[in-house]
Amino acid sequence: MIGTKIEEFFVVVSLAALIILVFLAALLRWFGIAVAWYLDVAQMLFAWITFIGADLALRKSKHIGVDILVTKLPEGVQKALAFVCYLLMLLFLAIVVFHGAKLCVTNYERKFDTVQVSYSFVTAAAPVGCSLMFITVIRHIAGFFTAKSPT
User: Fold this and answer.
1) Is pLDDT above 90 for 116?
2) Number of domains comprising the chain
3) Is residue 106 assigned to a domain?
4) What is the mean pLDDT of the chain?
5) Is position 93 within any domain?
6) Does residue 61 fall inside a structural domain?
C-alpha cells in the first residue's frame, strides 16, 4: 500500500536524521562546541518516529506480544480474544486522539526555546499517529469478517 510506503520512508528518513543529529551534537560537544537546538529537534523527530513507527508495527502485526497462553487456546477462542483486544485498542486510541487534539489546541502558542516551532507540532504526533493506528485496527477487524487474514 502507498500509505505504508510513505510511512516507512518518513520513519527511515527521520530516524536517520535523528541519529546523525545526535551524533553530530555529541561530537561537537566533545570539541567544546555547544549546539542548543539539537535537543528540541531530536524531541520532535523522536515523537513522530514513535507514533508513525507504532502504526507501521501494528500494520505488520509486529508489536511485542506475549502469546504463550493464547496459543494453547482453540483457534476460535484466539480469534474472539483478538477481536476483544482490537475493540479495547479502538477505545484507547479514540481517547488518545481526543485528548491529544485538545492538547494540540492548548499548546499552539507555546514554542520551543531554541527553534521557533509550536509545541503543537510535537503534540500532534499522538493524535495523528493514533488516528493512523485506529484506521489500521479497523482494517484488522474488517479482516475478521472477510476471507482475508487480519494481518
Assistant:
1) no
2) 1
3) yes
4) 90
5) yes
6) yes
Look up the pTM and report it: 0.86
Handedness of CA 77, 79, 84, 85 (dihedral sign): positive
- The answer as to whether 150 is a domain residue is no
Angle of CA points 70, 74, 76, to nearest 5°? 100
Per the model's pLDDT, the better-predicted residue between 149 and 89 turns out to be 89
| Angle 140-143-149 from CA coordinates, rounded to 5° | 100
Q: Which of 129, 110, 130, 133 is nearest to 120 (CA)?
A: 110
- What's the domain range around 28? 2-144
Mean pLDDT of 52-74: 87
Distance CA 41, CA 37 (A): 6
